[in-house]
Amino acid sequence: MSQSLANIVVHLVFSTKNRLPMIRDDIRDELHVYLCGILKAYDCTPLSANSEPEHVHLLFVLSKNMHSLRW
């Protein structure tokens, strides 16, 4: 019987428009929870979320069921 194993860890970094410092300290935790919720909805396992005022870092395990993503 065949078996497929996958463990793809992605470090995603993205910034605000024009790298303006828009991520305030008072919304930072809520933003991380929101972004991790999106990852979970796509069956990806979030490992870490962090941000600065002008950019975000997400570390997650890509779902093995993720064949193509249409936005």
Structural commentary:
By secondary structure, the chain is α+β, with helices and mostly antiparallel strands. The protein has one helix and three strands, in the order E-H-E-E. The chain has a three-stranded antiparallel sheet with strand order 1-3-2, covered by helices on one side. A hairpin with a 2-residue loop joins strand 2 (45-52) and strand 3. The mean pLDDT is 91.
Task: Based on the model shown, name its key terms.
1 helix, elongated, 3 strands, 24% helix, 71 residues, single chain, alpha+beta
Which class of secondary structure composition applies to the elements?
A: alpha+beta
| Rg computed from alpha carbons, rounded to a whole number of angstroms | 14 Å
Task: Give a quick account of the main beta sheet: strands, pairing sense, barrel closure.
Answer: 3 strands, antiparallel
Label the overall shape: elongated
Number of helices: 1
Order of helices and strands: EHEE
Write a concise synopsis of the structure shown:
With 71 residues, this protein is an alpha+beta fold.
SSE inventory with pairings:
Layout: E1 8-15, H1 25-41, E2 45-52, E3 55-62
Antiparallel strand pairs: 1-3, 2-3
